[in-house]
Design brief:
α2 (38-46) runs antiparallel to α3. This protein has 87 residues and is an all-alpha fold. It contains three helices and no strands. The longest helix has 33 residues, at 52-84. It has one domain.
Length: 87
């Protein structure tokens, strides 16, 4: 099997609970990912792991971050600017 330098840590077929990413930890990751750019960093890191379940979690976090930043840039930022510069 080819060993890429981009894949890290755990064997391929362990579930998330077996590698220490149980439900509470996953919830905390999604909660922390609400902060700008944190979701990209965490999701990018986890999407490069060797374990398939961890890669899937990383891809979900990246998708979550893209959607969230799309909402920030198209809805939230214009609303805040409109309220800030209202006369």
């Amino acid at each position: 099997m080819h060993k890429s330098k981009f894949y890290l840590d755990h064997p391929d077929d362990l579930p998330l609970d077996a590698i220490g990413l149980s439900g509470g930890i996953r919830f905390a990751l999604y909660l922390v990912s609400l902060l700008p750019f944190v979701g990209f960093v965490i999701g990018g890191n986890y999407s490069l792991r060797k374990n398939a379940a961890t890669r899937q979690l990383g891809r979900r976090l990246l998708l979550y971050a893209f959607v969230l930043h799309g909402f920030y840039l198209t809805c939230l930022c214009p609303a805040v600017l409109a309220l800030a510069f209202r006369q």
